[in-house]
Amino acid sequence: MVGSGFQNIFKIPELKKRVLMTLALLIVYRIGVHVPVPGIDSVALASFFAKAKGTLLGLFDMFSGGAFEKLSVFALGIMPYISSSIILQLLTVVVPHLERLSKEGEQGRKKIVQYTRYGTVLLSIIQGFGISIGLESMASPGGAPVVLFPGWGFRLMTVITLTAGTAFIMWLGEQITERGIGNGISLIIFAGIVCRMPNAIANTFKLVSTGEMNIFFVVILLVLMVGVVGVIIFVEQGQRRIPVQYAKRIIGRKMYGGQSTHLPLKINTSGVIPPIFASSIMMFPATIASFIKIEWMQDFAKALTPGGVVYELLFVGLIFFFCYFYTAVTFNPVDVSENMKKHGGYIPGIRPGKRTSDYIDRVLTRITLGGAIYVSCICVLPSVLITQVNVPFYFGGTALLIVVGVAIDTISQIESHMISRHYEGFLKKSGARVKGRF
Question: By C-alpha distance, which of 354, 356, 331, 336 is closest to 346?
Answer without folding.
Answer: 356
